[in-house]
Design a protein that fits this description.
The protein has 5 helices and 6 strands; from the N terminus they run E-H-E-H-E-H-E-H-E-E-H. With about 160 residues, it is an alpha/beta fold. Helix 1 packs across helix 5. The strands form 2 sheets. The chain has a 4-stranded parallel β-sheet, with helices on both faces. Strands 5-6 form a two-stranded antiparallel ribbon. The protein binds 5-nitro-6-ribityl-amino-2,4(1H,3H)-pyrimidinedione. 5-nitro-6-ribityl-amino-2,4(1H,3H)-pyrimidinedione (INI) binds next to strand 3 and helix 3.
Length: about 160
Amino acid sequence: MSITTIEGQFNDAQGQYAIVVARFNSFVVESLLEGAIDALKRHGISEESIRVVRVPGAFEVPLAVQKLAAQKKDDAIIALGAVIRGGTPHFDYVCAESAKGIGHVSLETGVPVVNGILTVNSIEQAIERSGTKAGNKGAEAALAAIEMVSLLRQLEG
Ligand code: INI
């Protein structure tokens, strides 16, 4: 008896990718975007296969993701943003709505939507995750998107 394992591969990356980017905290988010594009390109995805859509903040990301998913042009959508805790409960609402909305669109449409929105307690934590000592979460999100495109091709093919 042998176990069948089905998983996404990285050695033959394919597909069209949309990246939805929140402008808020742009000093961090632009680094996430750079990381995501770099990861896609270094896995063989051409610039022509990538489009970037900008929205004001993380709260607006799910609606843009929903519109893109409905177009059925992209094999995966990468959501990028940075929500940094402040002195009010606003942080909790923005985090909850963006994560819930992104997950909802993905399940409703069947289009993989990868959540690359940082939710952190401080600017320092955001910087650590956008290309310094804790890596680049934008690049990680791009890899997750490539993996999901490959996996879904196997599951749907
Ligand atoms: N949007 C973010 O992307 N990150 C944040 O840290 C943030 N904070 O803390 O306020 C934030 N707020 C804006 C929000 O996403 C909406 O753009 C705004 O509320 C208008 O709907």
